[in-house]
Amino acid sequence: MPGISTKPYLLRAIYEWCTDNGFTPYLSVKVSGAVQVPMEFVRKGEIVLNVAFSATSGLKMDNDAVTFKARFGGVSRDIYVPVANVQAIFASENGQGMVFDEVEVDDSPAAEVLVEPAKPVLGLASVSVREEGPAADSDKTENPEKNQKKSEKPSLKVIK
Predict the structure, then answer these.
(1) What are the pLDDT digits (tens) for 50-101?
(2) Cα end-to-end distance, the chain, whole Å
């Protein structure tokens, strides 16, 4: 008689080990129709999710799925990952964790209902970081106002 898979128990154990040691736990997920994640961040059919307490809200890791809310590009999203789709859990600081056997997922069209379509994030523009070197030195003589802002951290600006 087959019992419950050990995978969800191992996920919870590695998650607890990461948090107890001050590490940031990440999940590597094979994306299929049953997974609800922001599709704009999926690369080659996979996504890596930060599941640290500080990055999630309402994290629940049960025997069937990992669910939580997280912000992507400033927008809160509901995340749903069936345990079967989890490929690995690891600490970002040192890469220690556990990789699971190859993931078999359901790619049937009926499962597509849970996948959120990609939504572009509007109104944000990135600010480039100044590089040090000969080109940066030439800016010091040309524009003294620019030099006063050098110590500020890069940030995002809202463009209307």
Answers:
(1) 999 999 999 999 999 999 999 999 999 999 999 999 999 999 999 999 999 8
(2) 61
Give pTM, 2 decimals: 0.64
The 8-class DSSP code of residue 100 comes to P
What is the chain's alpha carbon radius of gyration, rounded to the nearest angstrom? 21
Residue 157 pLDDT class (50, 70, 90 cuts): low
SS3 23: coil
Q: Cβ contacts of residue 110 below 8 Å, gap of 6+? A: 33
The whole-angstrom separation of Cα 86 and Cα 80 is 11
- Position 146 pLDDT exceeds 60: no
Phi then psi for residue 82, to 5 deg, are: -60, 140
DSSP class of residue 116 equals B
Strands (E), the chain: 25-30, 46-50, 57-61, 65-72, 75-82, 86-91, 97-99, 124-125, 157-158
Report the Cα 93 to chain-centroid distance in Å.
15
Let me know the angle formed at the C-alpha of 105 by 33 and 4, rounded to the nearest 5 degrees. Answer: 120
